[in-house]
Write a structure and sequence with these properties.
alpha/beta; Dihydrodipicolinate Reductase, domain 2; 2 domains; 10 strands
Length: 271
């Protein structure tokens, strides 16, 4: 007898949320797209209809936990603050893409522990998180990520505003940040969630080094990871094609689909 279906909801129908709504549940057997939330309900219903998802309800973000076992956050950070309380308070799973917010809200982890909820951060636009997490169980000597992005992927970041740099006038690559993952999360809250995911998999946000480069000639969002540990030395690089939102790679939505497939699969590969 097949087990119960995994009910999933999506918070936000931007570039990532819409891609997930298009792919789910067709690409994950045993999954039900139970609900979505969006700022504009009429527009959300039209988007769902275009994917053949007319029966999926559009509800307020606070109501998503009532419909689903797991909620995927694909919304602005301020929405996550409301979403986390309702989903984790109900003992459900919250799949977080805005990983940087976790550093400012340790109480969410405590809430999940009390209620039986769960917080999951997908691999997203990175590579090698499984190997980094495994190495972190031994002894990590150093972990560094160097991120290079097209100018459009960094415009409006608080750190760029603080520096007063005219990125649109750049002719050569420019290093715009060097520091820890914790500081990178504050300076680039919508641009560098990958650094926090890496830090959480590794030795933590204060021991993970970050460099950020704005590259006027770049086509891809590029991330290079260098890890030195007692069990393995890693040099990893990924180039992601930006989505409609230049801050985010197209692979991010597919990473969530892969995560959900593992949840329902008989055979699961990778940790």
């Amino acid at each position: 007898m097949p087990g119960p279906r995994l009910r999933v909801a999506i918070a936000g129908l931007g570039a990532i949320g819409s891609e997930l709504a298009r792919r789910l549940p067709d690409e994950v057997p045993g999954l039900e797209l139970a609900a979505v939330s969006a700022r504009d309900h009429d527009k959300a219903r039209h988007t769902l209809s275009s994917f053949g998802r007319d029966g999926v309800p559009v509800v307020a973000v606070e109501e998503l936990a009532e419909h689903a076992d797991a909620v995927i956050e694909c919304a602005p950070r301020q929405v996550l603050e409301t979403l986390a309380e309702s989903v984790l308070g109900a003992g459900k799973e919250l799949i977080v893409l805005s990983a940087g917010a976790l550093l400012d809200h340790p109480e969410w982890i405590e809430l999940a522990e009390r209620t039986g909820g769960r917080i999951t951060v997908p691999t997203g636009a990175l590579v090698g998180l499984d190997a980094v997490a495994a190495a972190a169980l031994a002894d990590v000597e150093s972990l560094k990520i160097t991120s290079s992005k097209p100018v459009a992927g960094l415009l409006g970041a608080p750190e760029i505003e603080r520096l007063g740099v005219d990125l649109e006038g750049l002719e050569e690559p420019l290093r715009v940040f060097a520091g820890t993952a914790r500081d990178a999360a504050r300076g680039f809250p919508a641009n560098l969630n990958v650094t926090v995911a890496l830090a959480l998999a590794g030795p933590g946000p204060d021991r993970t080094e970050v460099e950020v480069w704005a590259d006027p000639h770049a086509v891809y969002n590029q991330h290079r990871i260098e890890l030195r540990s007692s069990v393995a030395n890693l040099s990893l690089m990924i180039q992601n094609v930006p989505s409609e939102n230049p801050r985010t790679g197209r692979i991010t939505a597919l990473s969530v689909v892969s995560l959900l497939r593992k949840r329902v699969a008989t055979l699961s590969v990778g940790s």
